[in-house]
């Protein structure tokens, strides 16, 4: 039996990381897989998150395509872009990792929500995602956006149904999800440290 993680374009555990440098192409492929993961939550309420992530992935990829020799890692891509007085892709990476004014970051939000769910096997997805939202995004959103996310949290499927969508073999799903999350946490940690020192204003 296959699982979501086995069929995804790339898992975060397969993203090349050397020291504090993250391989750009592999990171973008893994991020695209996060977008498809939201499909398994079965709610159109998450469409805004997916659209936001896809747009920011495109900003980074466009820069990589136009400057391939200076974009092997995310850090090199941003450093070289900022040196030119530009910041479109760098801004896209910040928003992909953290938050935007109108919607949300997919990576940090997803990481924290699924980690909470794995660590609390009796907790429903709606609770895990609501708590993760409160920790990562809520303070950045106005009342209207908070309302949208409140609906999205309530629309989360039951835990048992979500995990079945990820694969029939529960043991395999849990193993692969654990590996995926650990790698995503590593990547997010590196990005947090790097982006803390990045400014274009």
Jot down its keywords.
mainly alpha; 10 helices; Glycolipid transfer protein, GLTP; Glycolipid transfer protein domain-containing protein; 201 residues; two-stranded antiparallel ribbon; ceramide 1-phosphate binding; 64% helix
How many domains comprise the coordinates? 1
Q: What is the CATH C-level name? A: Mainly Alpha
Number of strands: 2
Number of DSSP helices? 10
CATH topology: Glycolipid transfer protein, GLTP
What order do the strands of the largest sheet run in, or round the barrel if closed?
Answer: 1-2
Average predicted confidence as pLDDT: 87
The rounded distance between the terminal residues' Cα atoms is 50 Å
Radius of gyration: 17 Å
What is the fourth-level CATH superfamily?
Glycolipid transfer protein
Unreliable stretches covering 5 or more consecutive residues = 99-104
H/E element string? HEEHHHHHHHHH
Helix content: 55-70%
Biggest sheet: strands, sense, closure? 2 strands, antiparallel
What CATH architecture would you give?
Answer: Orthogonal Bundle
Alpha-beta content class: mainly alpha
What general outline do the C-alpha atoms trace?
Answer: globular
**Strand residues, percent:** under 5%
